[in-house]
Structure formats: C-alpha cells, structure tokens
Amino acid sequence: MRELKILAVVVALTLITYWGVEPFAHSQMHPAVSNSNFDFGKADAETSKVAVEKAQKALDEVQKNSDEKAINNAKADLAKAVKFEKTINVFWESNNEAINAKGDVANGQILVTSNCTACHSIESQGFPQIMDNATTAGAYGVTTPDLGSSGKLYTKEFLVAFIKNPALASKVSHKFEDGKAHPMPGYDWMSSQEIADMVAYLESIAPKEMTNKEVFVDSCQRCHGLKYADMKNGTMGAFTPAENIKSYMGKLPPDLSQYIISRGPDYLGKFINDPQKLLDGTAMPRVGLNQESQEQVIKYLEEIGASKKEEREELGPKFLIYLVIFAIFGFLWKASKWRDVH
C-alpha cells in the first residue's frame, strides 16, 4: 500500500508540473499572441492599438519613479507608437479602392511587364532572370522573386499593399528610417485602378495548383535554407548568398530544417503571418501568404523536419499500454517476493 501512495504522490506532482507549472512558465517566457489573421488591415489595426496601450502602460510605470531620462524615453516610445498606429491605419484605408476595384488583365499585363520585369523574372510568361541570384543580391541585398506564382501565394489585399508601399505592407518600415529606402520602390504614384489591374494580371497567370515544396521555394527559399531537405540529392540552400542576406537582414536567417520541432506549427504559423507580434523589431518581413499557402509551407516543414511524426504518435499509446502492463507485473512480482518478509 505504501508503494501505491508513493506512486500517487509522484503522479500528482508530475501532473501539477506538466499542466500547471510548465504552462505558467511558458506563458511568462512566451506571452500569448492572437492567432494568424489574414485580413492584414484589420490585424495591423489591432496590433498597432495594442502597441500604443503597451507604450502608455510603460510610461505610466516609469512616471512613478520620477526618472526623467526614463520618462522621456517612454514618452518618445509612446509618440512613435501613436504615429505608427495612425500611419498604418491610413495606409490600409488608402488601399480599399484598389482592393475593391475590378482589375483589367490586359492593362495589368502592360503595366507589370513594363514596370516589374527589370528586376523580377516571370519565367512562365517568357521573362527570364536578367541577373543571376548572386548579382541580384549584390544589387538589392536579397534576390528578387519570380512573380509567376505571386497571384496564387498571396492575398489580393497584400499584393495591393505591397505594390503601393512594400515596407509598410511587410511591416519592416522600422528598418528604413533616416533616409534608408526599401530595395523595392513603392508604386503609390499609380492610380488605384492601375494597381488593381496589375494584381488581376498576376492572379491570371498564377498556377492553379502548387505542391508544398513549390510553395516553400517561392515563399521562403530566397532567405532560408533546408540542410536536411533531401539526404539523397543534397540540401536546399538559400538563393541569396550568406554575406548578402546577413548584411541586409542584420543576421543570417536560420536554417528551417528542424524548426517544426523546435518551434511547432502554431508558432511558425503566427510568425509567418506577422513576425512582429512574436519578435518586436525583427527584420523578418511579414510574408503575406494566404491561409492555404501558409498551411502548405508548414506542411512542407513537417515533411522535412518531422517525417516520422505519424509513426511517433502511433507508437505513443502502445508504449503507454506497455508501461501499464509492465507496472502491473512489477507490482505483482514485488508483492509475491515480499509477502513472506511482511
């Protein structure tokens, strides 16, 4: 009976740790953030509002200490947050006309091929890369994507926003201050109808279906590699050379081979959707993927980094059953051996 009491205590402490202490510790180290939101305008309105509230709370706290330097810094942070909230809301409101407009594919073709193909390839439409990846990265800091699949990968709202102002759309405007400029120029000088036409053309040439790997390659491989993508045929290196992407991003983007295990699908989904929510100030841009494409990226990372996931999950219940049976036999064996002693 004593052994059963000890077992009960161990089980209780284990469960308290697993369901109480560990989740609490995790919540303190990794505060919860809202789920992925593919309505980027609404998402930015919410996160910018939260940023203002957070900055106001920080100011209220430091004012209690009467530290003039800290108070001034907190006031500056609050003013910056308020300014960005106004800027981002005005920006998304200005996109509505183009988002709601019906695009003219023929005119969009003229606009895209005359404005975009100097930097971007569209292989499927007969516009190959003008420069190789290394040369392009040397010129812009990062290799430029082929636009053939953009109408499939990204939401219409994001494409409109990105064409108008890439830095604001991808939430990296903090990187381009003090005269710095995003490598892609904004086309906010175009009319809303012209931008809608460009998006309509990109959607018209996009493939109807893409494999998980194809989505990852077009969405992520410009910056991220996969060391363990294919042990038979080799690795999948980032298209942008390491020295260029490190200079452009501030640090070398991580290899994503095992990120599905170390971070998990929920974290990766939120991070792809809006990196700033999880890592404020990061150089990682919002990717802008639609929900289907984001799920395909995560699925591909599971195929690479967690290929044995189904086997592990299938083995789990069997192992637990084995432990229960083993524990029963162990208890009976102990009882039979110690019966005479007691």
UniProtKB/TrEMBL annotation:
Keyword Transmembrane helix, does the record have it?
yes
By its UniProt entry, which Pfam families does this protein fall under?
Cytochrom_C
Ranges annotated as spanning the membrane: 319-336
- The answer on whether this UniProt entry bears the keyword Heme reads yes
Which GO molecular-function terms appear in the entry?
A: electron transfer activity; heme binding; metal ion binding
Query: Where does the record place a coiled coil?
Result: 45-72
Which keywords does UniProt give here? Coiled coil, Heme, Iron, Membrane, Metal-binding, Transmembrane, Transmembrane helix
Q: What is the protein named?
A: Cytochrome C
Q: Which InterPro entries match?
A: Cyt_c-like_dom, Cyt_c-like_dom_sf, Ubol_Cyt_c_Rdtase_Cyt_c_su_prd
Residue span(s) of domain Cytochrome c: 103-206, 207-305
Organism whose genome encodes this protein: Aliarcobacter cryaerophilus
